[in-house]
Amino acid sequence: MTISRGGADRVRRRPTRSGVILEPSMIIDAALRLIEAPGGNALTVRRLGVELGADPSAIYRYFRDMDALLIAVADRLISETLADFEPGADWRESLREMGRGVHDSMLRHPRLAQLRAIRFTAGPNELRADDIGIGLLLRAGFAPADAVRHFRDFIDAVLALAAMDAIELGPGQEEADKRALAEVYASFSDEDYPNLAKARDHLTQITSSPFPGVLDKLIDALDRAAPKRKKRSRDH
Amino acid sequence: MTISRGGADRVRRRPTRSGVILEPSMIIDAALRLIEAPGGNALTVRRLGVELGADPSAIYRYFRDMDALLIAVADRLISETLADFEPGADWRESLREMGRGVHDSMLRHPRLAQLRAIRFTAGPNELRADDIGIGLLLRAGFAPADAVRHFRDFIDAVLALAAMDAIELGPGQEEADKRALAEVYASFSDEDYPNLAKARDHLTQITSSPFPGVLDKLIDALDRAAPKRKKRSRDH
DNA sequence: TACGCTTAGGTCAATGCGTTGACATAACTA
DNA sequence: TAGTTATGTCAACGCATTGACCTAAGCGTA
After folding, report:
1. pLDDT digits over A120-173, tens only?
2. Any idea which architecture A24-63 has in CATH?
3. What is the pLDDT averaged over residues B134-162?
4. Which of A169, A195, B48, B150 is the most buried (most CB within 10 A)?
5. Averaged over B188-202, what is the pLDDT?
């Protein structure tokens, strides 16, 4: 069983019952169409079958499973993230902008967010992103090994936080959680939780996204770790 | 339909076909047993039914859905995380230890990791953890509002990273990904990716966990943001 | 052109999954 | 004792995935 080796070298072009000739790219298109359909999350293998005019199981001739299909869709989206990004003069600001771009892009496609956070797409777009990010840290003065390590830390933290922000809870679930939290925070005993008591009025902010704060902290830490810019002998 | 209001106020104790009298705590126990069963991830509603000697759908009289059941199980585990934790003299070290504890606990129960990262359990254990964490930052000299905000950032980042580390890929998936990555990193063109080229020898480290590095960065940033310890007038 | 072989790839049926609505009945209440 | 209702049970839905099958596309040969 050879799978997902692209469309070019496929030779047997057998039409489905409804006459369509399948192509990997058609399946990716259809999947993206369903993902972005109004109502959201309309992508299921069965609906994909209907959308394509083929038996649902035909999809498995092209992608090992739903995961593999989603990865193919995800690689299309990384380019979207990079499209409108140009590194600027200040590496800190550029890194921040990159982080925000990734975060936004992932919120735009929650279904793919977790996948993008943990899987390597092996596509050229992912490499491009790494090249840009590591380039920024090299420019900041980090040695290559440190630049790689720090960028890995940075981008993985951004991806993980973004994936969490992107997760969609069931209808009403989020409000229910917030209400439960507000109630608990309003009613705990000062003796049992003395530290929380001191901060009681500020606990509500706990429900807002941690992303901006974490982004600040990561860049702060990198700034602190960056080699200090001073004249070195080879700069004579 | 009233659900999951604990066991005490339940009045109709009707036995299942096999004679068992159900209790919420029994269901949680059984779920935890299945989660920790050899082979892992053995928890399904249907198996839970068998384990309990009841129809699978009976579980839905006690928990709204699988998610609600998992949250109940998760609250049990937070106490496990806190059990062997005692804040020490240095707030930075204590925070680091707390982060590591959460990370370890989540890796121990991957099935529950994502849930713990995004949902509020409304249980006393979660409150306790918040109280301890915010206490550490208050001790570091942060004003209450800042302590809350910074701890939220810290703990959410730790949870998000841990959730990512905990995700289990399909069999062979992880190796396949690493191999694909190693191949791509070994063979890209120096001209297309000049920055990656400068760091070529160091790219392999990209596959190790970002958790320790991110933990360092978060604590570094907090240390930097902490009010400097100097004599203040009220300390006379 | 014709014939037969191999096999990619479309289809079908079945598995186990979470979840739900209808139903049955035992357990409490008046 | 009759009525109410909590709670167990059953059958069904749509889901992803898979193994068996079937058939036509393409190939080699004459």
Report:
1. 776 777 888 999 999 999 999 999 999 999 999 999 999 999 999 998 877 777
2. Orthogonal Bundle (1.10)
3. 97
4. B150
5. 94
Best of A70, A115, A127, A148 to disrupt the B interface by mutation (most B CBs within 10 Å)?
Answer: A148
What CATH number was assigned to the domain covering residues A85-228? 1.10.357.10
pLDDT score recorded for residue B10: 66
Which residues of chain A lie closer than 8 angstroms to B163, CB-CB? 160, 164
pLDDT reading at A5 higher than 90: no
The answer to whether the CB atoms of A160 and B156 lie below 8 A apart is no
Query: Is B69-228 assigned to CATH 1.10.10.10?
Result: no
Q: CATH 1.10.357.10 region(s) of chain A?
A: 85-228
Q: List, for residues B48-81, the tens digit of each pLDDT value.
A: 999 999 999 999 999 999 999 999 999 887 777 7
Chain A residues closer than 8 Å to B95 by CB: none
Give span(s): CATH 1.10.10, chain A: 24-63
What does the H/E/C string look like for chain A? CCCCCCCCCCCCCCCCCCCCCCCHHHHHHHHHHHHCCCCCCCCCHHHHHHHHCCCHHHHHHCCCCHHHHHHHHHHHHHHHHHHCCCCCCCHHHHHHHHHHHHHHHHHHCHHHHHHHHHCCCCCHHHHHHHHHHHHHHHHCCCCHHHHHHHHHHHHHHHHHHHHHHHCCCCCCHHHHHHHHHHHHHHHCCCCCCHHHHHCHHHHHHHHCCCHHHHHHHHHHHHHHHCCCCCCCHHHC
Residues 6..65 of A with a Cβ closer than 8 Å to B: which? none
Q: Indicate where chain B has its CATH 1.10.357.10 domain(s).
A: 69-228
Across the interface, do A188 and B127 touch by the CB < 8 Å criterion? yes
pLDDT of residue B234: 47
A96 touches strand C (CB under 7 A): no
